[in-house]
Amino acid sequence: MLVVTCVKQVPDTTQVKVDPVTGTLIREGVPFIMNPFDAHALEESLRLKDKYGFRVAVISMGPPNTEVTLRKALALGADEAILLSDRAFGGADTLATSAALAEAIKKLGQQEEIAIAMCGKQTIDGDTAQVGPGIATRLGYPQLTLVDLIVNVDLQAKKVKVRRRLEGRYEIVESPLPAMISILRRANRPRYPIVPKRLMSQDAPVALWNNKVMGLREDTIGLKGSATQVRKIFSPERAKGEILGDGVNKPEETAKLLLDKLTEKGIICL
Ligand SMILES: Cc1cc2nc3c(=O)[nH]c(=O)nc-3n(C[C@H](O)[C@H](O)[C@H](O)COP(=O)(O)OP(=O)(O)OC[C@H]3O[C@@H](n4cnc5c(N)ncnc54)[C@H](O)[C@@H]3O)c2cc1C
Q1: Of 206, 229, 234, nearest to 62 (Cα)?
Q2: How far apart are CA 56 and CA 54, in angstroms?
Q3: How far from the centroid of its chain's Cα atoms is residue 6's Cα?
Q4: What does the alpha-carbon distance between residue 58 and residue 5 come to, in Å, rounded to a whole number?
Q5: Which residue has the higher pLDDT, 269 or 156?
């Protein structure tokens, strides 16, 4: 049985700059990394491999240089890597991204039974957390989001039990397989690659699936299949904070100052 892990290559956000004229991201010269959430998703998949004997396939949609990230996943212990890359896939929003990834997972499922489609909770560039649920919806899988622990997998009953971390509480959920799981960073600490695997990964095959291989309708993928358009990218301006009173000695006075300010701005009406 297969665990398919979706891994996105993202710019190292500590180094990303926005072009002041066009408002788009300057990607030239920016180092790329495996999306940190996906490193945790991959680690979780590899732990399932160690414990239950699953095979782990990694899949990524992106430009040709995404191969570097997939090789890193192979070095960590993934068994198979697939790169979805084609100009037709470019400019995809989350709808079109999840469409292409779901079709690729379906294609893998024709060769081997799929147990889990594993995703990170979100990416550090797009940041939407929509792709995992999008994949689940398209595949008809139950979606187990915000997971910080996979409690166990019952291979006979084909069920998985996970812990979801919600605001102020946990939720233990049992779901039939196959399922989509999206993983929180707190779930684990990703392993380091061992030297022999790192060497092996340099020559290991990375399957390239372009749209000739996938055969998807062009109006369902890439820019044409996207329901949204990015008009502008910019950093939100942050209003400067203001300290009222000294906050310690005369709290009534400070509270009055605050009430006056909020009333003046029309935020509250006394
Ligand atoms: C109109 C439009 C045009 C865009 N054009 C571009 C563009 O030209 N170039 C560009 O780089 N971005 C573009 N984007 C951004 C693009 O939508 C997102 O990068 C992409 O849809 C993934 O969304 P996300 O990063 O929010 O992922 P999230 O939903 O936050 O990711 C959740 C999880 O899904 C999986 N996942 C997400 N994306 C991938 C992937 N590509 N491969 C494998 N697994 C994945 C990972 O496991 C990840 O942790 C565009 C967006 C829009 C709306």
Answers
A1: 206
A2: 6
A3: 7
A4: 5
A5: 156
Probe target for ligand 1 pocket from 3, 8, 25, 127, with the most ligand atoms within 8 Å of CB: 8
Which tokens is 21 given? 């004229």
CB atoms within 10 A of CB 137: 13
Q: Directed axis angle between helix 36-52 and helix 67-76, to 10°?
A: 40
- Please say whether the beta carbons of 221 and 211 come within 8 A: yes
Cis before 178 (ω within 30): yes
181 alpha carbon – ligand 1 mean position (Å): 17
The pLDDT tens digits of the residues spanning 75-118 come to 999 999 999 999 999 999 999 999 999 999 999 999 999 999 99
- Please identify, by atom number, the ligand 1 atom nearest to the C-alpha of residue 41: 47
Q: Where are the domains of the chain?
A: 2-220, 239-270
CB 183 within 8 A of CB 147: yes
Pocket of ligand 1 (CB under 6 A): 6-8, 35, 37-38, 41, 60-62, 90-94, 97, 101, 119-120, 122-123, 125-132, 226, 228-230
User: pLDDT for 191-233, tens place per residue?
Assistant: 999 999 999 999 999 999 999 999 999 999 999 999 998 887 7
Question: Tens digits of per-residue pLDDT, 37-84?
Answer: 999 999 999 999 999 999 999 999 999 999 999 999 999 999 999 999
Is the distance from CB of 177 to CB of 158 less than 8 angstroms?
yes
Classified by CATH at the fold level, domain 2-220 comes out as: Rossmann fold (3.40.50)
